[in-house]
Amino acid sequence: MAFGEFDLIETYFTHRLPKRDDVEIGIGDDGAVTRVPDNSDLVIVTDTMVQGVHFDEDTPARAVGHKIVAVNLSDLAAMGAEPAWISLAISLPQVNQEWLTGFAHGLREICDYYSCQLIGGDTTQGPLSITVTAHGFVPRGKAVRRDGAKPGDWLYVSGTLGDAGLALAARQHRRKLNPDYQRRLTERLYFPSPRVALGQSLRGIASSAIDVSDGLLADIKHVLKASHVGARISVDELPLSMALTESLSAEDALTYALTSGDDYELLFTVPESQRGLFDTVTAHSPSKPVCIGRITSDAEVLQLRHGDEPWELPETAHGFEHFSASAIESD
User: Fold this and answer.
1) How does pLDDT run across 73-93, given as a tens digit for each residue?
2) 222 labeled binding residue
3) 280 is an annotated ligand-binding site residue
4) Annotated binding residue at 16?
5) Any idea which positions bind ATP (predicted)?
6) How far apart are CA 260 and CA 165, in angstroms?
7) Which residue in 64, 73, 252, 261 has the most C-beta neighbors within 10 A?
8) Is 294 annotated as a binding residue?
9) Among the residues of the chain, which ranges form H helices?
């Protein structure tokens, strides 16, 4: 029996995902109709994952389904938004029912957890590529932006860095890991946890925020450029997992923490006047954010220090950037 586009949508995506009361019309019409709460702004983010660039053919389909939603929710978290709806555009070489079952399972798990409803999208035949657009709400005028950092603000990160990058290196046989560490780090690579609750708690407290998707150094530069400020980072304060520090030399561990992508932690700034409130709000967080430096007045100048001494990154280290020579060579 032929398995067409509408059969695919009906079987895997129409009935298996959570429903929300603010969706008037979801899947099945020419467009979705939704309601934005009063006195709220709508935040919209989009991410794409392509096989051979963001994941390989050995990546479990469930992990792909989870991660394509997680990376979008991480963007919403960085703006302090509450997730609400997603739309999905997926290109498939052929209908692989086993792969689609796993993919839909991963999608459903994370959508259930964060109460996101799939409200529409598109399916087509072609190279395996998945695009999700996620929508979320913030109280009017309360979105946390990249351009609000000021000299003197304290710089924080929400959790350990470099774990996903080390997991990827191990999968690509560039690093050898203890099996227990490899399982733990692979879980971080495949099933990242967007810091949604933390992002919402930062509204009215953080002066700027961004999620760490392409590496700490690559992502902080976006904040510095948007805010016209500089930063001083104490590399000896970076939060590192035991898996990272016991698997790598001290210099390599710091390099992974500064340059590896896919951790999806939040990097944010807090003014001195808000630090007391910030400490109160995050006092009972399962993973308390760590202060790693301070914002300076030297526009777009990033200083790395280890104790009282300047610290230099190895010349070959950098964050991921699409269309760069290194990205093209690695595809």
Assistant:
1) 999 999 999 999 999 999 999
2) no
3) no
4) no
5) 121-122, 146, 213
6) 5
7) 73
8) no
9) 5-9, 61-78, 97-114, 163-171, 179-190, 196-201, 216-227, 242-247, 250-259, 275-281, 325-330
Using alpha carbons, select from 196, 252, 241, 169 the residue that is nearest to residue 79: 196
Q: Residue 268 annotated as binding?
A: no
Question: Does 15 show up as a binding residue in the annotation?
Answer: no
47 assigned ligand-binding residue: yes
Say which range, 139-143, 190-194, 246-250, 281-285, has the weakest mean pLDDT.
281-285
Residue 121 assigned as binding residue = yes
| 322 is known to lie in a ligand binding site | no
Residue 54, annotated ligand binder?
yes
| CA distances, 70 to each of 183, 189, 238 (Å) | 19, 11, 23
Each residue of 23-78: pLDDT tens digit? Answer: 999 888 889 999 999 999 999 999 999 998 898 899 999 999 999 999 999 999 99
Residue 109: CB partners within 8 Å, gap ≥ 6? 62, 65, 66
Coil/strand/helix, residue 292: strand
Please give the model's pTM, rounded to 2 decimal places.
0.91
Domains of the chain: 5-139 (3.30.1330.10), 154-330 (3.90.650.10)
